[in-house]
Design brief:
single chain; alpha/beta; Rossmann fold; 18 helices; 5 strands; about 45% helix; binds 2-acetamido-2-deoxy-beta-D-glucopyranose
Length: about 375
């Protein structure tokens, strides 16, 4: 049963988070505590990832928390509107959009959404946001228990964007996920912005698994924008992957050197999340200052263990999650594997993925190509 967050939550939350921060992140937070900010301020979490890395699943883990106002890929409409530009140029309007939405200002969307931003349904993925599918944003759900995103698609389409902005203000956490920021230094001004308490959750995945998964999707427009400044005549998977991998390495590099990011950056691998969902979700919730309830724990267990055949769902995370990440090992062409391993060598070294030296190694599933002892430190 979902309900809107209590107004007094902020005060309670402030002390809870200070304690959990102390217990779990003592070593990773620098002395200039980022939590000296006013206790009333919301927490702003940005999930940074790339295509087919499991960020939809990760987003849902936050979306299902009662205190979270979640927005799925706000940059989508912007890329669509400026489809002839390159990802580098589009970083700047996306940064501005993220800043606005983190502070519950929806006004830029009036310019970016196809119908002038009259209704939330112009946001392509609005039904992926529990907060947009439950009261007070959408009263159609007063009589329905919980959050049902398929029903929401039909019942909540006419909610106004202004209502969305008002509801957003009642939440203690605003969480967004984007795959459209390829350079973390673009976001540095947001860390100095007194209106924000920004944290970055960086989700990475084995580039070979990403490449394999991308083979079954149509990313024509995204690829064109991504490679615009590289000359977009040859949009081969290995070239797209090279750019994506470089971006993941660069994001991590900026996080390591930027003083304002100390204690505000956490990297997580898709494979670790799949193998040990609960343990890693606890870590991520701690990082975001969220409390894991028994209900959520049960939900996580359900979605990571059940086989769900509903293909209409865009979130196909409900299957035995520990088996999902390794499909590429049996089915991917070894030549492509080699190409990706070459173009993504730095990312693979940095994030703990071992190369397969032959097709025999690729297909030998007892040979673990994900370094289990990996840690970024
Ligand atoms: C916190 O927010 C509430 C409601 O928005 C407000 O009444 C209160 O004065 C704020 N407290 C502080 C310490 O800013
Ligand atoms: C939303 O608005 C459209 C037209 O304005 C209307 O046809 C439709 O029935 C409305 N849907 C809901 C669920 O209110
Ligand atoms: C988890 O699944 C069980 C069995 O299908 C169901 O009874 C329960 O309500 C589910 N819990 C949540 C929180 O999704
Ligand atoms: C598969 O890998 C394991 C672990 O490295 C190794 O012991 C085994 O001999 C390999 N099997 C084959 C068929 O190469």
């Amino acid at each position: 049963m979902m309900s809107s967050p209590p107004k007094y939550f902020f005060l309670f939350f402030g002390s809870l988070f200070s304690l959990s921060t102390f217990l779990h992140y003592k070593t990773s937070f620098s002395t200039h505590s980022p939590h000296s900010a006013p206790k009333n301020k919301s927490v702003h979490l940005l999930i940074l990832s790339s295509w087919r890395s499991g960020s939809s699943f990760l987003g849902q883990i936050f979306n299902h928390h009662n205190d979270v106002f979640y927005i799925f890929e706000p940059g989508h409409s912007l890329w669509f509107k400026f489809r002839n530009e390159g990802s580098e140029l589009l970083h700047f309007p996306i940064r501005d959009l993220l800043r606005s939405l983190f502070t519950c200002d929806v006004s830029p969307l009036h310019q970016y959404l196809p119908g002038g931003g009259k209704r939330v349904s112009e946001l392509l993925f609005y039904a992926e946001s529990r907060a947009l599918c439950t009261p007070p944003t959408c009263s159609a759900f007063k009589l329905i228990n919980g959050y049902d995103h398929l029903k929401c698609t039909h019942s909540c389409m006419n909610t106004s964007l202004d209502q969305m902005g008002e509801t957003c203000k009642t939440y203690s956490h605003v969480v967004m996920k984007t795959i459209r920021i390829l350079d973390l230094s673009i976001l540095l001004p947001l860390f100095r912005d007194p209106a924000l308490d920004l944290r970055i959750l960086h989700l990475v995945r084995d580039p070979r698994a990403i490449a394999f998964s991308r083979l079954f999707c149509d990313f024509q427009l995204d690829n064109k924008i991504l490679l615009k400044n590289e000359g977009n005549t040859n949009i081969a998977t290995s070239r797209v992957m090279q750019k994506i991998c470089k971006a993941q390495v660069d994001i991590n590099r900026v996080a390591k050197v930027a003083e304002v990011l100390q204690g505000r950056y956490m990297a997580i691998r898709h494979e670790d999340l799949s193998n040990e969902p609960l343990k890693n979700i606890k870590k991520m919730y701690n990082f975001a200052g969220l409390h894991l309830t028994k209900d959520l724990e049960q939900w996580v267990y359900n979605v990571t263990h059940k086989e769900v055949a509903d293909t209409k769902e865009i979130m196909t995370f409900s299957r035995d999650s520990s088996k999902v990440p390794y499909k590429w090992r049996n089915a991917m062409d070894f030549h492509l594997v080699e190409e990706i391993q070459q173009n993504c060598k730095e990312a693979m070294d940095l994030f703990g993925y071992k190369p397969a030296k032959s097709q025999i190694e690729q297909k030998n599933l007892t040979l673990d190509l994900v370094n289990k002892e990996w840690s970024l430190k």
